[in-house]
Write a structure and sequence with these properties.
This protein is an alpha/beta fold. The protein has nine helices and six strands, in the order βαβαβααβαβαβααα.
């Protein structure tokens, strides 16, 4: 099996996440892509939406693509989510599976700052998606890491979860930035108003 891992806070999940996952799935002919919401990412503050809400929105977003599924390993483990720990657990559990961890090209030059990055590079390849012509800083990224990165161009969608949260806070619509059923979930559950209150 060839599996893509799409990790992230997904606070909330948006169209850009789905396009990135589908780009890598097609490019590498993956069997599946597993969407893995993090509990507490080491490089970010605590998420605005709860773990349960973020997982529910991911499940709604990927429900129509049979090659996509959710993975709750980091939510169940709790604490700070280090990718090297997660991938070590997955490689042990699925020894016959080849994993490809999906990141944005903007993260490539930050990989050396990831916890135990050379150990992580021995557990998974990286699939970097983004704008073509990205410049890798060879003096920053060690060869052991650079050698396990594959690059994929994808349509440039200037969408971020931060932008979506800002829109929600100000009472503006997130329609077409998130999947329609995620937008309906936000509207139906009153999360526009509720979320605005939590981040004032």
């Amino acid at each position: 099996m060839k599996i893509g891992i799409m990790g992230g806070t997904f606070d909330p999940i948006h169209i850009g996440h789905l396009v990135a996952a589908e780009t890598v799935r097609e490019g590498l002919k993956l069997d599946e892509v597993w969407f893995m919401p993090s509990h507490i990412p080491p490089h970010k503050a605590e998420a605005g939406f709860s773990a349960e809400e973020r997982m529910e929105m991911v499940e709604l977003a990927i429900g129509t693509q049979p090659a996509f599924r959710t993975l709750d390993i980091e939510l169940r483990r709790g604490g700070v989510s280090y990718t090297v720990d997660t991938m070590g657990e997955l490689v042990t559990k699925y020894p016959d599976t080849r994993f490809h961890f999906i990141i944005g090209t903007d993260m490539v030059n930050y990989l050396p700052k990831w916890n135990r990055i050379e150990e992580l590079a021995g557990l998974t390849r990286f699939a970097a998606v983004g704008r073509g012509g990205y410049e890798l800083h060879q003096e920053v990224v060690p060869e052991a890491v650079a050698s396990v990165i594959d690059y994929f161009d994808m349509p440039q969608l200037e969408i971020s979860s931060t932008e979506i949260r800002s829109r929600l806070k100000s009472g503006r619509s997130a329609r077409y930035l998130v999947p329609e059923n995620v937008h309906d979930y936000l509207q139906r559950s009153g999360h526009h108003a509720a979320y605005a209150r939590t981040i004032d």
